[in-house]
Protein backbone atom coordinates (compact mmCIF):
# COMPACT_ATOMS: atom_id res chain seq x y z
CA UNK A 1 0.00 0.00 0.00
CA UNK A 2 1.43 3.36 -1.00
CA UNK A 3 2.19 5.62 1.92
CA UNK A 4 0.67 9.11 1.80
CA UNK A 5 1.62 12.34 3.53
CA UNK A 6 -0.44 15.34 4.44
CA UNK A 7 -0.10 18.50 2.37
CA UNK A 8 1.02 20.31 5.49
CA UNK A 9 3.89 17.85 6.00
CA UNK A 10 4.91 18.04 2.36
CA UNK A 11 5.02 21.84 2.39
CA UNK A 12 6.91 21.78 5.68
CA UNK A 13 9.49 19.41 4.21
CA UNK A 14 9.77 21.30 0.91
CA UNK A 15 10.33 24.62 2.68
CA UNK A 16 12.57 23.44 5.49
CA UNK A 17 14.77 20.93 3.62
CA UNK A 18 16.57 23.48 1.40
CA UNK A 19 16.94 25.79 4.39
CA UNK A 20 18.58 23.01 6.43
CA UNK A 21 20.91 22.18 3.55
CA UNK A 22 21.79 25.85 3.18
CA UNK A 23 22.37 26.09 6.94
CA UNK A 24 24.80 23.14 6.74
CA UNK A 25 26.70 24.79 3.88
CA UNK A 26 26.76 28.15 5.65
CA UNK A 27 27.80 26.47 8.91
CA UNK A 28 30.74 24.81 7.20
CA UNK A 29 31.68 28.10 5.53
CA UNK A 30 31.31 29.98 8.82
CA UNK A 31 33.53 27.43 10.60
CA UNK A 32 36.21 27.76 7.91
CA UNK A 33 36.06 31.55 7.95
CA UNK A 34 36.14 31.57 11.76
CA UNK A 35 39.30 29.50 11.79
CA UNK A 36 40.96 31.67 9.14
CA UNK A 37 39.91 34.89 10.86
CA UNK A 38 41.04 33.62 14.26
CA UNK A 39 44.37 32.57 12.78
CA UNK A 40 44.93 36.03 11.28
CA UNK A 41 43.83 37.83 14.47
CA UNK A 42 46.07 35.65 16.65
CA UNK A 43 49.02 36.24 14.31
CA UNK A 44 48.44 39.96 14.66
CA UNK A 45 48.26 39.48 18.44
CA UNK A 46 51.60 37.69 18.33
CA UNK A 47 53.05 40.50 16.22
CA UNK A 48 51.77 43.11 18.65
CA UNK A 49 53.22 41.16 21.59
CA UNK A 50 56.54 40.76 19.77
CA UNK A 51 56.78 44.47 18.97
CA UNK A 52 55.87 45.40 22.53
CA UNK A 53 58.52 43.07 23.97
CA UNK A 54 61.14 44.38 21.51
CA UNK A 55 60.31 47.94 22.53
CA UNK A 56 60.51 47.18 26.25
CA UNK A 57 63.82 45.34 25.84
CA UNK A 58 65.26 48.34 24.01
CA UNK A 59 63.90 50.88 26.50
CA UNK A 60 64.86 48.98 29.64
CA UNK A 61 68.06 47.70 28.05
CA UNK A 62 66.95 44.15 28.78
CA UNK A 63 65.97 44.61 32.40
CA UNK A 64 62.20 44.12 32.44
CA UNK A 65 58.91 44.28 30.56
CA UNK A 66 56.48 47.09 31.17
CA UNK A 67 53.19 46.37 32.96
CA UNK A 68 51.22 47.12 29.75
CA UNK A 69 53.21 44.55 27.81
CA UNK A 70 52.76 41.97 30.54
CA UNK A 71 49.03 42.68 30.52
CA UNK A 72 48.96 42.26 26.73
CA UNK A 73 50.69 38.91 26.96
CA UNK A 74 48.48 37.74 29.83
CA UNK A 75 45.18 38.83 28.30
CA UNK A 76 45.82 37.53 24.79
CA UNK A 77 42.60 35.94 23.40
CA UNK A 78 44.63 33.26 21.71
CA UNK A 79 45.70 31.71 24.98
CA UNK A 80 49.02 31.89 26.86
CA UNK A 81 51.87 33.68 25.04
CA UNK A 82 55.47 32.61 25.50
CA UNK A 83 58.44 34.77 24.57
CA UNK A 84 62.24 34.74 24.32
CA UNK A 85 64.44 37.77 23.69
CA UNK A 86 68.15 37.93 22.76
CA UNK A 87 70.32 40.98 22.34
CA UNK A 88 73.21 41.78 20.00
CA UNK A 89 75.46 38.82 19.54
CA UNK A 90 72.74 36.37 20.58
CA UNK A 91 72.99 37.27 24.29
CA UNK A 92 69.97 36.00 26.27
CA UNK A 93 68.00 38.96 27.61
CA UNK A 94 64.64 37.76 28.99
CA UNK A 95 61.82 35.25 28.59
CA UNK A 96 61.71 31.48 28.42
CA UNK A 97 65.11 29.90 28.05
CA UNK A 98 64.58 27.58 25.07
CA UNK A 99 62.45 28.91 22.21
CA UNK A 100 61.02 26.62 19.47
CA UNK A 101 63.41 25.98 16.66
CA UNK A 102 62.75 26.39 12.96
CA UNK A 103 61.73 29.11 10.60
CA UNK A 104 64.04 29.96 7.74
CA UNK A 105 65.12 33.56 7.28
CA UNK A 106 63.81 35.37 4.22
CA UNK A 107 65.59 37.72 1.88
CA UNK A 108 64.99 40.56 4.32
CA UNK A 109 66.15 39.39 7.80
CA UNK A 110 64.22 42.21 9.47
CA UNK A 111 60.79 41.08 8.23
CA UNK A 112 58.65 39.23 10.83
CA UNK A 113 58.67 35.47 10.20
CA UNK A 114 55.72 33.20 11.19
CA UNK A 115 56.15 29.44 11.31
CA UNK A 116 54.91 26.39 13.14
CA UNK A 117 57.03 24.24 15.43
CA UNK A 118 56.89 22.13 18.58
CA UNK A 119 57.40 23.34 22.14
CA UNK A 120 57.40 20.80 24.94
CA UNK A 121 55.83 18.23 22.58
CA UNK A 122 52.98 20.54 21.65
CA UNK A 123 52.47 22.23 18.28
CA UNK A 124 52.84 26.00 18.48
CA UNK A 125 52.59 29.03 16.24
CA UNK A 126 55.84 31.04 16.35
CA UNK A 127 56.80 34.64 15.41
CA UNK A 128 60.42 35.62 15.08
CA UNK A 129 61.12 39.37 14.94
CA UNK A 130 64.65 40.75 14.35
CA UNK A 131 65.52 44.44 14.76
CA UNK A 132 68.71 46.48 14.97
CA UNK A 133 69.24 47.47 18.64
CA UNK A 134 71.89 49.03 20.92
CA UNK A 135 72.04 47.60 24.43
CA UNK A 136 74.77 48.74 26.86
CA UNK A 137 77.03 50.14 24.17
CA UNK A 138 76.55 47.00 22.08
CA UNK A 139 74.93 47.41 18.69
CA UNK A 140 73.61 44.50 16.72
CA UNK A 141 70.56 42.39 15.84
CA UNK A 142 68.11 41.77 18.69
CA UNK A 143 65.68 38.90 18.17
CA UNK A 144 62.34 38.46 19.89
CA UNK A 145 60.56 35.10 19.56
CA UNK A 146 56.93 34.75 20.72
CA UNK A 147 54.72 31.71 20.38
CA UNK A 148 51.28 30.27 21.30
CA UNK A 149 49.85 26.80 21.50
CA UNK A 150 47.93 25.92 18.33
CA UNK A 151 45.47 23.94 20.47
CA UNK A 152 44.47 27.16 22.27
CA UNK A 153 43.83 28.85 18.96
CA UNK A 154 41.74 25.98 17.68
CA UNK A 155 39.74 25.83 20.89
CA UNK A 156 38.92 29.50 20.53
CA UNK A 157 37.96 29.10 16.85
CA UNK A 158 35.84 26.04 17.69
CA UNK A 159 34.10 28.02 20.40
CA UNK A 160 33.21 30.72 17.87
CA UNK A 161 31.93 28.07 15.45
CA UNK A 162 29.87 26.40 18.17
CA UNK A 163 28.24 29.67 19.11
CA UNK A 164 27.49 30.33 15.44
CA UNK A 165 26.00 26.82 15.10
CA UNK A 166 23.86 27.32 18.21
CA UNK A 167 22.60 30.62 16.83
CA UNK A 168 21.83 29.03 13.44
CA UNK A 169 20.03 26.08 15.04
CA UNK A 170 17.97 28.49 17.14
CA UNK A 171 17.02 30.40 13.99
CA UNK A 172 16.14 27.15 12.17
CA UNK A 173 14.02 25.94 15.10
CA UNK A 174 12.20 29.28 15.19
CA UNK A 175 11.69 29.14 11.43
CA UNK A 176 10.44 25.56 11.65
CA UNK A 177 7.80 26.56 14.21
CA UNK A 178 6.76 29.55 12.11
CA UNK A 179 6.51 27.41 8.94
CA UNK A 180 4.64 24.57 10.68
CA UNK A 181 1.96 26.78 12.20
CA UNK A 182 2.03 29.21 9.26
CA UNK A 183 1.31 26.40 6.79
CA UNK A 184 -1.49 25.18 9.01
CA UNK A 185 -3.04 28.62 9.04
CA UNK A 186 -2.46 29.02 5.31
CA UNK A 187 -4.23 25.71 4.59
CA UNK A 188 -7.22 26.65 6.72
CA UNK A 189 -9.37 27.56 3.66
CA UNK A 190 -8.81 24.01 2.31
CA UNK A 191 -9.83 22.54 5.66
CA UNK A 192 -12.96 24.69 5.65
CA UNK A 193 -13.70 23.56 2.09
CA UNK A 194 -13.30 19.92 3.12
CA UNK A 195 -15.68 20.38 6.04
CA UNK A 196 -18.22 22.12 3.81
CA UNK A 197 -18.13 19.32 1.21
CA UNK A 198 -18.28 16.63 3.90
CA UNK A 199 -21.36 18.29 5.41
CA UNK A 200 -23.23 17.98 2.12
CA UNK A 201 -25.82 15.30 1.56
CA UNK A 202 -25.19 12.68 -1.16
CA UNK A 203 -27.95 14.27 -3.27
CA UNK A 204 -26.46 17.77 -3.15
CA UNK A 205 -24.47 18.28 -6.35
CA UNK A 206 -24.83 22.05 -6.53
CA UNK A 207 -21.77 24.14 -7.34
CA UNK A 208 -19.34 25.16 -4.59
CA UNK A 209 -19.65 28.90 -3.92
CA UNK A 210 -17.20 29.13 -1.00
CA UNK A 211 -14.33 31.61 -1.40
CA UNK A 212 -11.01 29.79 -1.83
CA UNK A 213 -7.40 30.86 -2.47
CA UNK A 214 -6.32 31.54 -6.06
CA UNK A 215 -4.07 28.44 -6.03
CA UNK A 216 -7.02 26.11 -5.37
CA UNK A 217 -9.58 27.87 -7.52
CA UNK A 218 -8.81 25.53 -10.42
CA UNK A 219 -9.53 22.48 -8.24
CA UNK A 220 -12.87 23.95 -7.14
CA UNK A 221 -13.78 24.84 -10.73
CA UNK A 222 -12.95 21.28 -11.79
CA UNK A 223 -15.09 19.89 -8.96
CA UNK A 224 -17.96 22.13 -9.99
CA UNK A 225 -17.68 20.91 -13.60
CA UNK A 226 -17.55 17.33 -12.36
CA UNK A 227 -20.62 17.88 -10.17
CA UNK A 228 -22.48 19.35 -13.15
CA UNK A 229 -21.48 16.40 -15.36
CA UNK A 230 -22.47 13.87 -12.69
CA UNK A 231 -25.78 15.65 -12.15
CA UNK A 232 -26.47 15.69 -15.90
CA UNK A 233 -25.46 12.04 -16.17
CA UNK A 234 -27.76 11.06 -13.31
CA UNK A 235 -30.61 13.04 -14.85
CA UNK A 236 -30.03 11.42 -18.25
CA UNK A 237 -29.82 8.00 -16.62
CA UNK A 238 -33.10 8.57 -14.80
CA UNK A 239 -34.77 9.70 -18.02
CA UNK A 240 -33.33 6.66 -19.80
CA UNK A 241 -34.65 4.29 -17.13
CA UNK A 242 -38.07 5.95 -17.23
CA UNK A 243 -38.24 5.78 -21.03
CA UNK A 244 -36.94 2.20 -21.07
CA UNK A 245 -39.52 1.12 -18.50
CA UNK A 246 -42.24 2.77 -20.55
CA UNK A 247 -41.05 1.13 -23.79
CA UNK A 248 -40.71 -2.32 -22.25
CA UNK A 249 -44.04 -2.18 -20.48
CA UNK A 250 -46.11 -2.34 -23.68
CA UNK A 251 -44.25 -5.33 -25.25
CA UNK A 252 -44.31 -7.12 -21.93
CA UNK A 253 -48.04 -6.54 -21.57
CA UNK A 254 -48.59 -7.67 -25.17
CA UNK A 255 -46.55 -10.85 -24.62
CA UNK A 256 -48.50 -11.63 -21.47
CA UNK A 257 -51.84 -10.97 -23.18
CA UNK A 258 -50.98 -13.14 -26.18
CA UNK A 259 -49.67 -15.92 -23.99
CA UNK A 260 -52.93 -15.95 -22.04
CA UNK A 261 -54.91 -15.84 -25.30
CA UNK A 262 -52.93 -18.81 -26.66
CA UNK A 263 -53.51 -20.72 -23.45
CA UNK A 264 -57.26 -20.06 -23.53
CA UNK A 265 -57.71 -20.59 -27.29
CA UNK A 266 -60.90 -22.49 -28.13
CA UNK A 267 -59.56 -24.23 -31.23
CA UNK A 268 -56.22 -25.51 -32.44
CA UNK A 269 -56.18 -23.06 -35.34
CA UNK A 270 -56.78 -20.11 -33.03
CA UNK A 271 -54.06 -21.37 -30.65
CA UNK A 272 -51.53 -21.61 -33.51
CA UNK A 273 -52.44 -18.11 -34.69
CA UNK A 274 -52.07 -16.76 -31.16
CA UNK A 275 -48.71 -18.49 -30.81
CA UNK A 276 -47.51 -16.89 -34.07
CA UNK A 277 -48.56 -13.50 -32.73
CA UNK A 278 -46.78 -14.31 -29.45
CA UNK A 279 -43.54 -15.14 -31.29
CA UNK A 280 -43.76 -11.84 -33.23
CA UNK A 281 -44.36 -9.88 -30.02
CA UNK A 282 -41.50 -11.69 -28.29
CA UNK A 283 -39.11 -10.84 -31.12
CA UNK A 284 -40.20 -7.21 -30.94
CA UNK A 285 -39.60 -7.12 -27.19
CA UNK A 286 -36.21 -8.77 -27.64
CA UNK A 287 -35.27 -6.20 -30.30
CA UNK A 288 -36.22 -3.32 -27.99
CA UNK A 289 -34.19 -4.89 -25.18
CA UNK A 290 -31.15 -5.32 -27.44
CA UNK A 291 -31.36 -1.70 -28.56
CA UNK A 292 -31.67 -0.49 -24.97
CA UNK A 293 -28.59 -2.51 -24.04
CA UNK A 294 -26.73 -1.06 -27.03
CA UNK A 295 -27.59 2.47 -25.90
CA UNK A 296 -26.39 1.69 -22.40
CA UNK A 297 -23.12 0.22 -23.69
CA UNK A 298 -22.57 3.32 -25.81
CA UNK A 299 -23.12 5.62 -22.84
CA UNK A 300 -20.95 3.65 -20.41
CA UNK A 301 -18.45 2.03 -22.78
CA UNK A 302 -14.70 1.98 -22.20
CA UNK A 303 -13.84 4.50 -24.94
CA UNK A 304 -11.73 3.25 -27.80
CA UNK A 305 -10.35 0.18 -25.98
CA UNK A 306 -12.22 -2.10 -28.42
CA UNK A 307 -11.35 -0.07 -31.53
CA UNK A 308 -9.43 -1.72 -34.35
CA UNK A 309 -8.45 -0.80 -37.89
CA UNK A 310 -10.51 -2.44 -40.65
CA UNK A 311 -11.90 -1.98 -44.16
CA UNK A 312 -15.34 -0.37 -43.98
CA UNK A 313 -16.29 -1.80 -47.38
CA UNK A 314 -15.82 -5.33 -46.13
CA UNK A 315 -17.85 -4.71 -42.96
CA UNK A 316 -20.72 -3.17 -44.95
CA UNK A 317 -20.66 -6.12 -47.37
CA UNK A 318 -20.82 -8.67 -44.53
CA UNK A 319 -23.60 -6.76 -42.76
CA UNK A 320 -25.69 -6.49 -45.93
CA UNK A 321 -25.18 -10.20 -46.60
CA UNK A 322 -26.82 -10.93 -43.26
CA UNK A 323 -29.73 -8.54 -43.97
CA UNK A 324 -30.38 -9.46 -47.60
CA UNK A 325 -32.43 -12.68 -47.07
CA UNK A 326 -35.07 -11.04 -44.87
CA UNK A 327 -35.35 -8.03 -47.19
CA UNK A 328 -35.69 -10.17 -50.30
CA UNK A 329 -38.24 -12.44 -48.59
CA UNK A 330 -40.29 -9.31 -47.85
CA UNK A 331 -40.43 -8.66 -51.61
CA UNK A 332 -38.09 -5.64 -51.65
CA UNK A 333 -35.13 -5.06 -53.96
CA UNK A 334 -31.79 -4.77 -52.20
CA UNK A 335 -28.76 -3.19 -53.88
CA UNK A 336 -25.17 -2.71 -52.67
CA UNK A 337 -22.61 -0.38 -54.28
CA UNK A 338 -19.15 -0.26 -52.68
CA UNK A 339 -16.35 2.23 -53.23
CA UNK A 340 -13.64 1.08 -55.65
CA UNK A 341 -10.80 1.38 -53.14
CA UNK A 342 -10.70 0.24 -49.51
CA UNK A 343 -12.00 2.62 -46.85
CA UNK A 344 -9.78 2.08 -43.83
CA UNK A 345 -11.35 3.27 -40.58
CA UNK A 346 -10.68 2.67 -36.91
CA UNK A 347 -13.57 1.73 -34.67
CA UNK A 348 -15.74 -0.89 -33.02
CA UNK A 349 -16.85 -3.47 -35.55
CA UNK A 350 -19.94 -4.52 -33.58
CA UNK A 351 -21.29 -1.01 -33.02
CA UNK A 352 -20.70 0.19 -36.60
CA UNK A 353 -22.37 -2.93 -37.96
CA UNK A 354 -25.28 -2.35 -35.55
CA UNK A 355 -25.62 1.25 -36.78
CA UNK A 356 -25.81 0.10 -40.43
CA UNK A 357 -28.40 -2.54 -39.52
CA UNK A 358 -30.47 0.11 -37.75
CA UNK A 359 -30.48 2.33 -40.86
CA UNK A 360 -31.65 -0.56 -43.02
CA UNK A 361 -34.21 -1.61 -40.38
CA UNK A 362 -35.46 1.99 -40.22
CA UNK A 363 -36.04 1.94 -43.98
CA UNK A 364 -37.96 -1.32 -43.74
CA UNK A 365 -40.19 -0.20 -40.87
CA UNK A 366 -40.80 3.40 -41.89
CA UNK A 367 -40.75 3.11 -45.71
CA UNK A 368 -44.46 2.53 -45.84
CA UNK A 369 -46.49 0.73 -48.47
CA UNK A 370 -44.64 2.47 -51.33
CA UNK A 371 -41.28 0.95 -50.34
CA UNK A 372 -39.91 -1.32 -53.05
CA UNK A 373 -36.14 -0.79 -53.04
CA UNK A 374 -33.35 -0.27 -50.53
CA UNK A 375 -29.90 0.86 -51.66
CA UNK A 376 -26.66 0.79 -49.62
CA UNK A 377 -23.45 2.41 -50.82
CA UNK A 378 -20.04 3.54 -49.61
CA UNK A 379 -17.76 6.30 -50.87
CA UNK A 380 -14.91 8.59 -49.79
CA UNK A 381 -15.02 12.37 -49.47
CA UNK A 382 -11.67 13.85 -48.50
CA UNK A 383 -10.60 12.35 -45.19
CA UNK A 384 -14.06 10.93 -44.41
CA UNK A 385 -15.73 7.65 -45.31
CA UNK A 386 -19.48 7.59 -45.87
CA UNK A 387 -22.08 4.82 -45.70
CA UNK A 388 -25.43 5.82 -47.24
CA UNK A 389 -28.71 3.90 -46.89
CA UNK A 390 -31.48 5.12 -49.20
CA UNK A 391 -34.96 3.89 -50.06
CA UNK A 392 -37.92 4.85 -52.28
CA UNK A 393 -40.48 4.77 -49.52
CA UNK A 394 -42.38 7.35 -47.50
CA UNK A 395 -39.51 9.84 -47.27
CA UNK A 396 -37.65 11.79 -44.55
CA UNK A 397 -36.54 15.42 -44.85
CA UNK A 398 -33.51 17.01 -43.10
CA UNK A 399 -35.71 19.37 -41.07
CA UNK A 400 -37.08 16.31 -39.23
CA UNK A 401 -33.59 15.36 -37.91
CA UNK A 402 -34.14 16.47 -34.31
CA UNK A 403 -37.33 14.42 -33.98
CA UNK A 404 -35.99 11.43 -35.93
CA UNK A 405 -32.75 11.19 -33.93
CA UNK A 406 -34.39 11.53 -30.50
CA UNK A 407 -34.75 8.40 -28.40
CA UNK A 408 -38.17 6.74 -28.28
CA UNK A 409 -39.56 9.19 -30.82
CA UNK A 410 -40.91 8.57 -34.33
CA UNK A 411 -41.81 10.88 -37.20
CA UNK A 412 -44.86 8.71 -37.87
CA UNK A 413 -46.30 5.84 -35.81
CA UNK A 414 -44.93 2.38 -36.66
CA UNK A 415 -44.00 -0.88 -35.00
CA UNK A 416 -40.44 0.38 -34.36
CA UNK A 417 -39.04 1.30 -30.93
CA UNK A 418 -37.74 4.76 -31.84
CA UNK A 419 -34.18 3.79 -30.90
CA UNK A 420 -32.58 2.80 -34.19
CA UNK A 421 -31.52 6.24 -35.45
CA UNK A 422 -30.56 7.40 -31.95
CA UNK A 423 -28.19 4.45 -31.65
CA UNK A 424 -26.74 5.09 -35.13
CA UNK A 425 -26.09 8.73 -34.24
CA UNK A 426 -24.42 7.78 -30.95
CA UNK A 427 -22.18 5.25 -32.74
CA UNK A 428 -21.13 7.85 -35.32
CA UNK A 429 -20.36 10.48 -32.68
CA UNK A 430 -18.41 7.99 -30.57
CA UNK A 431 -16.18 7.38 -33.60
CA UNK A 432 -15.65 11.08 -34.30
CA UNK A 433 -18.23 11.22 -37.10
CA UNK A 434 -21.87 12.11 -37.54
CA UNK A 435 -25.21 10.99 -39.00
CA UNK A 436 -27.12 13.18 -41.42
CA UNK A 437 -30.36 13.10 -43.36
CA UNK A 438 -29.77 13.88 -47.03
CA UNK A 439 -32.22 15.92 -49.10
CA UNK A 440 -34.15 13.56 -51.37
CA UNK A 441 -36.92 14.09 -53.89
CA UNK A 442 -38.44 10.73 -53.01
CA UNK A 443 -37.85 8.29 -50.21
CA UNK A 444 -35.31 8.68 -47.42
CA UNK A 445 -31.52 8.89 -47.53
CA UNK A 446 -29.30 8.78 -44.42
CA UNK A 447 -25.50 8.82 -44.29
CA UNK A 448 -23.10 7.78 -41.56
CA UNK A 449 -19.86 9.77 -41.82
CA UNK A 450 -16.70 8.29 -40.22
CA UNK A 451 -13.10 9.60 -40.30
CA UNK A 452 -10.58 7.56 -42.27
CA UNK A 453 -7.73 6.03 -40.30
CA UNK A 454 -4.13 7.12 -40.90
CA UNK A 455 -2.70 3.87 -39.49
Characterise this structure.
The chain is an alpha+beta fold and 455 residues long. It has 3 domains: 7-173, no CATH class; 214-298; 303-451, Heat Shock Protein 90, CATH 3.30.565.10. The protein is built from 10 helices and 12 strands. The protein has helices at 7-60, 67-74, 150-186, 188-198, 214-263, 268-299, 312-329, 349-366, 401-404, 420-430; strands at residues 81-86, 92-95, 113-119, 122-135, 138-149, 308-311, 333-337, 344-347, 373-381, 384-391, 434-437, 445-451. The chain has a 5-stranded antiparallel sheet with strand order 2-1-5-4-3. Strand 9 (373-381) and strand 10 form a beta hairpin. Helix 1 runs antiparallel to helix 3 (150-186), helix 5 (214-263) runs antiparallel to helix 6 and helix 8 (349-366) packs antiparallel against helix 10 (420-430). The protein starts with 6 loop residues before the first helix and ends with a strand. The relative contact order is 0.07. The mean pLDDT is 78.
Write a brief caption for the model.
The chain is an alpha+beta fold and 455 residues long. It is built from 10 helices and 12 strands.
Taking pLDDT < 50 over at least 5 consecutive residues as the criterion, the unreliable ranges are: none
Distance between the termini: 40 Å
User: Could you spell the SSE succession in H and E letters?
Assistant: HHEEEEEHHHHEHEEHEEHHEE
Q: Summarize the biggest pleated sheet.
A: 5 strands, antiparallel
How do the strands of the widest beta sheet line up side by side? 2-1-5-4-3
The tally of helices reads 10
Fraction of residues in β-strands: 15-25%
Q: Summarize model confidence as the mean pLDDT.
A: 78
Shape assignment: rod-shaped
How many domains? The number is 3
Amino acid sequence: MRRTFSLRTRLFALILTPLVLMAIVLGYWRFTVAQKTAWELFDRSLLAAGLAISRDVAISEGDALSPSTRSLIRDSSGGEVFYHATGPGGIYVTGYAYPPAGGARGEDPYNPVFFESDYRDEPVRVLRLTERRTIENLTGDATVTVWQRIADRRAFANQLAVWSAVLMLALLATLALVVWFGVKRGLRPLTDLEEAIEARSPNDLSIIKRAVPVETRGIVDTLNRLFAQVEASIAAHQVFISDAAHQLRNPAAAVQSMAEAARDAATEEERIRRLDELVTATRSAARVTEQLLSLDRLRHGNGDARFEVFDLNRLVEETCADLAPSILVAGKDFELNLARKPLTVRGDLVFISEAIKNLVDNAMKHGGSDLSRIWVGTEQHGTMAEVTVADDGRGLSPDMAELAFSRFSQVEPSDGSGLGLAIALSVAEQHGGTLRINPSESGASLTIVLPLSSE
